[in-house]
Each structure stands twice: as C-alpha cells, then as structure tokens.
C-alpha cells in the first residue's frame, strides 16, 4: 500500500 | 519509527556535528578529506529532493534540513574559511571521486525502485553514501593524521551504521512487507567500508600514540 512506498528513512 | 532508527539518526547527526565543531574550534581540517565531505553533501542533496514535495513528518523534514545544512557547513568551512582552508591536505586528497559519482549514477539508472527522477536520484544517493568514505580512507592511509578525526567521531559513525542495520533487522521481522533491498545491500557494503576505515583509523591512532610517548 502507498504509505510503505514513501521513503521514511533518512 | 523505531528506537534503533531514531538512535541511528541521532548518532549520525552527532558524528557530523562533532566533525564540524572540531574543524571550527581548531580552525584546522588537516587529515580530513574534502572530497568525502563533498560526497556526503551530495548524498543529502540528492536524497532529499522530496523535501518540499513529500511531507512524512516534522521530524523527517527537520532532520533533512539539518543534515543538508551541517554537511554543507563542513564543505563551506573547508573551502572558504580563510584559516581552515590553509590546513587542507590538497595534494594528498587526490582520490578521483568524480569516477565514483559517475559509477553510482550509472548504477542508479540501472538499479532503482522506479525509473523516475526522484527514485533514480534516491538510489544514486544510497550508492554514493556507501562509497563516500573512500577518499577519506585513502587520505588516512596516506597521511595517518587523525588529529581532527577524533575517536568520538569514529565511534558515532560506527554507532550510526550498527544501529541502522539493527533497525533493518527489526523492521524485517515486525513489518509484513518491509523490502528495502537497495538500502540494505548498499548499507551493508557501506558498513564494510566503514569497518575498513575504522581499522586504518586504529592503526594510525596506535602509531601516533606510540610516537607521542616520551622517547
């Protein structure tokens, strides 16, 4: 799902 | 967000701030590779292209700005500060980092999660971060000068890598579909190169300590 694609790691 | 990743981000930031403060306090950058610092700044600039488009969280946005600002501050100090720039080992810091930049960019064109500008530059920044330490490693082998590469700097850099690997293991087991193969594989290569850097750092530190002992 979409929110996993967002790169949340720096 | 898990504690390992938060701690990893904090130790990464602290390592950068330690280096910046050391350079600013001693007004010297002897033994520090400007090329590695420029590669780090390029890593953050190309990785955070989504700074103004994707909003993940306040923490994420603030940290991106801080990483970009602190890495550029080190490059500015080493290039422009009248006192600091005099101590730069220009003739020793000769690693041809442009080839590394090119190789990472070609690899990013071939290996990425999606063939879009943002994803290609993200993959580029991941590959580049893995090899960015090379000029510093070569300079350290040549100069053996660890005056400005304090033990704390190396300690926090190692902690950053170790905590990020634990973070990936943790996410792998707790999230149903955590797949960050590009970041994980590249991160492992990076940690291997950091281990090599730490080895040469230890050798230089040991040699210098022996030299300093009263004859």
UniProtKB/TrEMBL annotation, chain B:
A GO cellular component term found in this entry reads: endoplasmic reticulum membrane
Mind telling me which PROSITE patterns this protein's record contains? Answer: ER_LUMEN_RECEPTOR_1 (PS00951), ER_LUMEN_RECEPTOR_2 (PS00952)
Q: Where in the cell is it found?
A: Endoplasmic reticulum membrane
Keywords annotated in UniProt: Endoplasmic reticulum, ER-Golgi transport, Membrane, Protein transport, Receptor, Transmembrane, Transmembrane helix, Transport
Segments passing through the bilayer = 58-78, 121-141, 153-173, 179-202
Q: Which GO terms describe its molecular function?
A: ER retention sequence binding
InterPro entries, per this entry? Answer: ER_ret_rcpt
* Domain of life from the UniProt record: Eukaryota
For biological process, the GO terms are: protein retention in ER lumen; protein transport; vesicle-mediated transport
Membrane topology per record = Multi-pass membrane protein
Which Pfam families does the entry link to? ER_lumen_recept
The family assignment reads:
Belongs to the ERD2 family.
Identify this protein by name: ER lumen protein-retaining receptor
